[in-house]
Amino acid sequence: MNKRWLENLKRYVSKRGIDPQTFDFEHNLDWSLTYSEIKAELKDKLSLNEFKYQKDEKEHLDQEQLKEEEAIVESVAKEKLEEYRKQLKDSPIDVFYKPVYDAILKQKMGLRSLLFIKGRGGIGKSYCIKRALVKKNIDFVVISGRMTEAHLYRTLYENKTKTIWLKDIMRLFRGLESIEMLKAVTETSKEDRIVSNNTYSFEMEYLPKSFLFEGNLVFDFNQVIDMKWSEDFNALISRGELIELVFGFEEMCQIMRLIAETDEEKEATEYLIENYKYIGNNQFNLRTQKDVITEHKFAKMMSIDWKQHIKEYLNRNMTPLRTFLYQFIGNGTLRTMDLKKCLLLSGACGTLRTADRRVQDWTAMGELFKVSSDVNNPLLSLNPMKVEFPTVATKKEEI
């Protein structure tokens, strides 16, 4: 521990009205980091910025007004949830998410208290989790956004008898304290699920030092990155159930077709499925489907060619490689040899052999497309959907 750094940090917190004696600098900070990183960790643990903002705001707002506004928000949320509950009905799409429904049911039955649902974005994780919680009449709260250990402690205390659905809050697992806190509230025996507050923070000033957690936790996330405490995280996962939602192309097509209800939605969905290879840098998922349906409606309302409009919309978001090649090809076509010359002149490739190999690789990966069957004059395009004569070559191209 660097003594000079320690004195600087103590002066830093003192200037912000915090008694340095109330915080254990030696054990609560990672002294293997750089000074700027340690300072950032200190600010995070004490929640200095958030506390200052919240304190200033509360001093200027009437407490009765705050309570009234909170009541309005809560009332609106309950009304929306009740409306969703009334409209909820069984759907053929539920079969794709059966593992999630079964896991939520286990929580309601008291068989499990911790659930992890992992899967790439846009495959319906949030959709099925919400349906499952509502269908099983479970009292739940949704938490998303930035969360520190202090935020987690308060959230657990304020919702200690509910199911807490945490959406994409994987930052929690980068700190050992938060993982240990989650371990405490997911003990096998319910009477052992006691979490204690051992860290000073203004956000926990008026909270009890310990409490019994009787609720459940549901984590919804895409992936875990920069995992410093991987062993502790795996130990936490072993206390609950991990479900990885993975869908292939055909399964995604089935789900999309079930989601599409009106003729317009079905028309847009089929167009997306037929042209999924040419959708630029967009992912083939339910979010892209929603975007395509929206653009289809917009084109119809504006009385313009909806197919052409969707083509243009999908190709706005190009991959980094296509962005690079666009300067040479643009929206049209280019002879293979001319593209190689451009690569050589720009310095992107040092030799003709390298340029030839790159073009072949990009064509194989679907970044470039052949749009002429004339092997003596092969043409390349970034997207055959934009070309007036998208005839794909059937013979092997010899350059």
Question: Could you please describe the fold and organization of this structure?
Answer:
The protein is α/β, with parallel strands linked by helices and 399 residues long. It has helices spanning 3-14, 25-28, 35-46, 48-60, 63-87, 98-108, 125-135, 149-158, 176-184, 230-237, 249-259, 263-274, 286-301, 306-314, 320-329, 336-346, 352-365; strands at 114-118, 140-144, 163-167, 194-196, 210-212, 216-221, 241-244, 333-335, 369-370, 379-381.
Short summary of the structure?
The chain is α/β, with parallel strands linked by helices and 399 residues long. The chain has helices spanning 3-14, 25-28, 35-46, 48-60, 63-87, 98-108, 125-135, 149-158, 176-184, 230-237, 249-259, 263-274, 286-301, 306-314, 320-329, 336-346, 352-365; strands at 114-118, 140-144, 163-167, 194-196, 210-212, 216-221, 241-244, 333-335, 369-370, 379-381.
Annotated CATH homologous superfamily of the largest domain: P-loop containing nucleotide triphosphate hydrolases
Question: What is the overall silhouette?
Answer: globular
What is the gyration radius calculated from CA atoms? 28 Å
Reported CATH architecture of the largest domain: 3-Layer(aba) Sandwich
Number of domains: 4
Structural class: alpha/beta
The helix fraction, in percent, is: 40-55%
**Which stretches are low in confidence, meaning pLDDT under 50 for 5 or more residues running?**
48-55, 387-399
Mean pLDDT: 80
